[in-house]
Structures are given as C-alpha cells and as structure tokens.
Design brief:
With 187 residues, the protein is an alpha+beta fold. It has an eight-stranded mixed sheet with strand order 3-2-1-4-5-7-6-8. The protein has helices at residues 5-27, 62-71, 85-102, 117-123, 149-159, and strands spanning 36-43, 48-56, 59-60, 108-112, 139-144, 163-167, 172-176, 181-185.
C-alpha cells in the first residue's frame, strides 16, 4: 500500500509543532506572569544602576517606573519620558533567559532608551531611524557584559514581540514594543 505523503506530512508538522510549543511559550511576552519581576540594569553613559523589583503580579511600581524612566532618559540632555512598561518587560524577559541559560542573574547594559528629536537627529548618521520608537519611549538598545553578540542576538530574537535590530559591529541589540520586524546592521 503506498504511503500517504500528505497525511504523513501533516502528522510530521503536527508533531514538530507540538515539540516546539514549550519554546514558543517561553518566548512570549510576560503579560500574564505573576510574582515579582526584578531587573539588574546599568547605564554606562551615566554610571547609574537599577537593581530592584519593578513589578509585582504584573503591576509596575510607581517608584520603580519613575526610577527606570530616569535611568533610560536621553543622557545627552538629561530629559526623561514615561517609558512604555512593555520595554521593562522585554528587559525582564532577556534577564530571565540569561538566568535560565547561565544559572545566575546578569546585568543588562543600556546603550539608549528615550531620545529627544534633537538627539535622534544627531544619531541619524550612525543609523538612527527618522521615526525611531526611541522618540516615544518604546525602545531600548542593550548588551550583556561578558556575552558575545551571537548569544545576545539569539536571546533577543526569542523575546522580541516587536522590533528587533541587530547591530553586529557595535555589539548591541535594539528591542521595541512596536510592530514585529527585524533588521541588522554590520557597522
């Protein structure tokens, strides 16, 4: 009796899909997670740190939000905005993935958060988009000290629910809460 190529292909796809389900669930945004969410962040431009709980049971602490807004400010002009809390969740997901992979908490280095239009325009020759989500407080550029770009890119790809930019030569990734898209720059 001849094999049923369509039926076996369908079964194969179903089995592969089920096998991948735990990985997909781990990569989903942390919207429904309960418990404490802690971040360990460092801004090398200002030499400031945040190592604290920012949310409990999905509710962002007002004090932590204020402190995170300041840490992610446009350091060129010391101007802050209300960051999208989804950015904090992306940072937490990155931190959690590193903790699971390496068995310890890591410090995430913040290269850029909020940008004023003036700062964004100055950064255009370096690749800043004209309508960057940094202008709206919906984006962050980050790296993790001691880990290479391939490791960083793989973890970022797993948590990205919006935009993901890979900046290979500069050794950082961009994550945002906007529409899903991917780009890379080799400079």
């Amino acid at each position: 009796m001849p094999a049923d190529p369509i039926g076996s292909l369908t079964r194969r796809r179903a089995l592969l899909g089920l096998a991948a389900l735990p990985f997909c669930a781990a990569a989903a945004p942390a919207v429904d997670q309960t418990g404490e969410r802690r971040l360990r962040l460092y801004n090398p431009h200002t030499d400031e740190r945040f190592d604290d709980v920012y949310a409990v049971d999905g509710v962002v602490s007002a004090d932590a939000w204020k402190r995170l807004n300041w840490l992610l400010r446009d350091h060129h002009v010391d101007k802050a905005t209300d960051m999208d809390p989804g950015v904090f969740d992306l940072l937490w997901l990155m931190s959690r993935r590193y903790q699971v992979a390496k068995g310890r908490r890591v410090t995430i280095n913040l290269h850029s958060g909020f940008r004023t239009p003036e700062t964004n325009e100055k950064l255009r020759p370096e690749g800043a988009a004209r309508n960057s989500l940094h202008l709206q407080g919906k984006a962050v550029d980050l790296s993790v000290q001691g880990y290479g770009m391939v490791f960083l890119a793989n973890h970022a790809r797993a948590v990205a629910s919006g935009g993901l930019g890979l900046y290979w030569r500069s050794d950082f990734v961009h994550l945002d809460t906007g529409p899903k898209r991917l780009w890379y720059k080799r400079f």
